[in-house]
Amino acid sequence: MPQVDDGPESGETLRRKLDPELPLGVFDSGLGGLTVVREIAAALPRERIIYLGDTARVPYGARSPATVVRYAQGCARALVREGIKALVVACNTVSAVALDVLRAELDLPVLGVIEPGARAAVAASARLRIGVLGTVGTISSGAYPRAVLTVSTRAEVSAHAAPLLVPLAEEGWLDGEVPRLAVRRYLEPLAAAEVDVVVLGCTHYPLLRATIEHEAREMIGAHVRVVDSAHATASELAALLHDRGLLATREGPGEIDLLVTDRPRSFGEMTARFLGGPAREVRVIDL
Amino acid sequence: MPQVDDGPESGETLRRKLDPELPLGVFDSGLGGLTVVREIAAALPRERIIYLGDTARVPYGARSPATVVRYAQGCARALVREGIKALVVACNTVSAVALDVLRAELDLPVLGVIEPGARAAVAASARLRIGVLGTVGTISSGAYPRAVLTVSTRAEVSAHAAPLLVPLAEEGWLDGEVPRLAVRRYLEPLAAAEVDVVVLGCTHYPLLRATIEHEAREMIGAHVRVVDSAHATASELAALLHDRGLLATREGPGEIDLLVTDRPRSFGEMTARFLGGPAREVRVIDL
User: Fold this and answer.
1) How many CB pairs under 8 A join A and B?
2) What is the rounded CA–CA span in Å between residue B118 and residue B195?
3) Which residue among A84, B18, B25, B191 is buried most deeply as judged by most CB within 10 Å?
4) Nearest CA to B272 among B35, B23, B57?
5) pLDDT tens digits for range A2-40
6) Can you give the pTM of this predicted structure?
7) What's the rounded Cα separation, in Å, for the pair A51 and A257?
């Protein structure tokens, strides 16, 4: 039987040619995803990044899956209209319930934060006992256990919601007694499950990393490792852009454009806290 | 000059005749307003109540005033379509920024929670030094100081945002070290201002009342009074319905219908916590 040439039916040739000089699109329900932007900017300093924070509808964490999918589609389409070469879903809740829909709908690479986080967790865990903290939405979706099991069927996952950590991070209560006691309460079931890795399954949690790391060491032991999905996602994004020939080549440092759907009252302070550096200019868009 | 009869130009005769057997409409950004419903049901046990929680867009507390006004109009119109005789805005953030717009737009009595709370605070304060805790939106609107000053120009108001109290109430962490330490931190500026009344300026806070009361007594003194806007609002609503001849007269206990714009994952548990009694049936509507 004759070999058929790769015609226009082939997925590879149908794939739109993407311009490596286009920016990366990153979105989150609010400003938490800026911790992912920070890691991307560190790993890929030449890339331009357009960040969209859906601050008018934050937080997604407690919403129904159907609502999260609808909101995520709105965010993704708005970024595609801006012209991007790849999309990073810098939100664990959206990555948990809407990634497949976005991948089916969009003709460009789409990366979530859960799969990279799960892979990094398995790599870091000697005993394959992995603890995850996240929002109610992320945890009740079961996305982390599922993602871990696709990497290692022998791994055991203890995943628990920690709803108070987002408001603590937003309030800037990053150390001291209140965050310490809240973190300890949320780590209790993970300590009981004898995990040796704690995954920060929410983009806000890196702000509380020092407290989480300190308490986890005290409650679980000095061997415990804290894994940050944001860092793992930036590494996988760099590899993906390289593999597909999509790395920006122009000289000079990249830029970060900030879009929001509502200007929160504490916006400047929050961007400084999440992204580092001074408060930034921002464009408000309607979805 | 001859006396002109009250013609159709008179505001009083132009006012639509409202049916006392219609239900009361109550809305909030989420489920916190159920603490107000609870007080209304206690004060007016014969009234039917339709409650709308805009759970798809909760929380309003950190959103811009323009967005809050737009959301509030959507909620109010949805309740008016259901057929109501009066509207209670059971949300401090909306009462702070959108009450005038709603009153101008709607042809029925509209009651917020801030004015009743401010009147109750002045009545309870011997030294006319009043402390208020609320969301960022409520506090930065300046609505409580303004409302207090319309009651007493001699009163001094110390109003401070306490963003962590809403997630604490929703998480059900109502006593113990974490809420105790968070409450103490938020009460510090009120204690320094030597207030003798603390207003619970958010519908979630009545759940933390015991902790707030206990810590306020310890930090400020046994004379301090905690004023709950929800309770004050229910009392003023009862007086308003009586004055306008709008009290329901039919026999038997009233009912509470719950509408939400998204079904939050922890809905049943939350209604039980806020409203008391068992979890309730609910209707999901689109605004």
Assistant:
1) 68
2) 14
3) B25
4) B35
5) 444 444 444 444 566 899 999 999 999 988 999 999 999
6) 0.83
7) 6
Q: Do B262 and A64 touch (CB under 8 A)?
A: yes
Token readout for A73 is 């589609």
The token pair that represents B148 in the structure block: 């207090």
Listed in sequence order, the DSSP H helices in chain A are 11-14, 34-43, 65-82, 92-105, 114-124, 136-141, 143-151, 165-171, 177-192, 209-220, 229-243, 267-275
Q: Pick the catalytic residue: B86, B202, B246, B258?
A: B202
Domains in chain B, start-ordered, CATH in brackets?
Answer: 11-112+232-284 (3.40.50.1860), 114-229 (3.40.50.1860)
Token digits of residue B277: 């009694």
Among this protein's residues, is A91 annotated catalytic? yes
Quick one: A186 exposed, middle or buried, by C-beta within 10 A (0-12, 13-18, 19+)? buried
Q: Please, are residues B256 and B41 in contact by the beta-carbon 8 Å criterion?
A: yes
Answer whether B16 touches A (CB < 8 Å).
no
Owner of token pair 């401070």: B160
Nearest residue of A to residue B267, measured between CA atoms: A62
Strand partners, A130: A157, A197
Q: How far apart are CA A261 and CA A283, in angstroms?
A: 8
Q: Strand B110-111 and strand A24-28: pairing?
A: unpaired
ipTM of this predicted complex?
Answer: 0.78
- Condensed to tens digits (0 to 9), the pLDDT of residues A241-270 reads 999 999 999 887 888 999 999 876 667 777
Supply B41's token pair: 């049901």
Chain B residues closer than 8 Å to A167 by CB: 163-164, 166-167
| ∠ Cα A287 B95 B143 (to 5°) | 110
CB contact under 8 Å between A178 and B173, yes or no, is: no
Q: Other CB atoms closer than 10 Å to residue B263's CB: what's the count?
A: 16
